[in-house]
Design brief:
Domain ABC transporter: 23-266
CATH class of the largest domain: Alpha Beta
Bound molecules: adenosine-5'-triphosphate
Protein name: ATP-binding cassette domain-containing protein
Strand order of the largest sheet: 6-7-8-3-9-10
Helix content: 25-40%
CATH topology of the largest domain: Rossmann fold
Structural class: alpha/beta
Largest sheet: 6 strands, mixed
GO molecular function: ATP binding; ATP hydrolysis activity
CATH architecture of the largest domain: 3-Layer(aba) Sandwich
Keywords: ATP-binding, Cell membrane, Membrane, Nucleotide-binding, Translocase, Transport
Number of helices: 11
Strand content: 15-25%
Number of strands: 10
Radius of gyration: 19 Å
Organism: Pelovirga terrestris
Shape: globular
Order of helices and strands: HHEEEHEEHEHHHHEHEEEHH
CATH superfamily of the largest domain: P-loop containing nucleotide triphosphate hydrolases
Length: 280
């Protein structure tokens, strides 16, 4: 099966569509020392889109996310994030960009010695002055905002709990409540459910997708569990060996594509059992 790869020109699109674009990668490469882990990646993500990034282990998914949120700079090519060339961002401009990008990791999202309320209010950190942030640790500022966000993730009763008293799924919900308080323009979730069983994973992906669509926030999720694509994403981007292998709608994914994408991992992932359909 022939991999469908967009050219830089078609990805970048016209000046008009660029105005509604949150990320543009143009011929991006990333090397660590002599090892090139991303090669010639060109893609764009539109405002409000919900996109899943898939691919075998080591394909470069996390590296791509770190480039998009400007934690890493490209070795080649250019990334434009919310209108800024990340290769040239420094100081306040870099902090400003990071405020607009909310990140959810697979675990360790919460500060273990802070109560849930304080973890949720961490979402305000990019906007609050240092004195207000310190004061909030003694006397939570915006308690109503924390209560509301926790209500949205159905954890109102955990406001004063410690993270260690929560299950893995509940901790991810608290991290999502923190994202709601942060109100970023983009949410990047890097394998947010790989530590959870499939039922909890489904709940978390459904919650993220629902919140992103209600807030009009762009959502990018790096996913290993392909069963979770169903119904939540408008587009899938597949990476293989550091290259953009394929992109399209979830409904276009078929057995041949997955066999070619995952190679030896295909059987281990039980992909024959995966039933994919687009209900977005
Ligand atoms: N800081 C680094 N220094 C050196 N090599 C790195 C670094 N970060 C990532 N790599 C390498 O880059 C490649 C891609 O890693 P990355 O974590 O982006 O892949 P991935 O697709 O997210 O994999 P997984 O699904 O297993 O998490 C891997 O071979 C990894 O070892």
């Amino acid at each position: 099966m022939e991999a469908v790869i967009e050219t830089a020109a078609s990805c970048v699109g016209s000046a008009q569509s660029a105005a509604q674009t949150v990320f543009v990668a143009e011929n991006v490469g990333k090397s660590f020392g002599p090892t090139q882990v991303l090669k010639n990646i060109s893609l764009s993500i539109r405002e409000g889109e919900r996109v899943a990034v898939i691919g075998p282990s080591g394909a470069g998914k996390t590296t791509l996310f770190r480039l998009l949120c400007a934690v890493l700079k490209p070795s080649e090519g250019r990334i434009t994030a919310l209108g800024h060339d990340t290769g040239h961002l420094r100081g306040n401009a870099l902090r400003g960009l990071r405020r607009e990008i909310g990140i959810l990791y697979q675990n360790d999202n919460l500060i273990p010695h802070l109560r849930v309320v304080h973890n949720v209010l961490m979402g305000h950190l990019g906007h609050w002055s240092l004195p207000r942030a310190i004061l909030s640790l003694l006397w939570p500022q915006d308690l109503a905002g924390a209560r509301k966000a926790l209500g949205e993730v159905e954890l109102s009763e955990k406001l004063w709990s410690m993270p260690g008293e929560l299950s893995g799924g509940q901790q991810q919900r608290v991290a999502i409540a923190r994202l709601m308080v942060q109100q970023p323009r983009v949410m990047l979730a890097d394998e947010p459910v790989s530590q959870l069983d499939i039922r909890l994973g489904r709940e978390i992906i459904a919650l993220l997708s629902d919140i992103a669509s209600r807030m009009g926030t762009t959502l990018l999720v790096n996913l290993h569990t392909l069963e979770l694509l169903e119904g939540h994403f408008e587009r899938v981007i597949a990476l293989r060996e550091g290259r953009l292998f394929w992109q399209g709608a979830p409904s276009e994914i078929n057995r041949e594509l997955l066999l070619e994408l995952y190679g030896a991992e295909y059987r281990a992932m039980h992909l024959d059992d995966v039933v994919l359909s687009a209900k977005v």
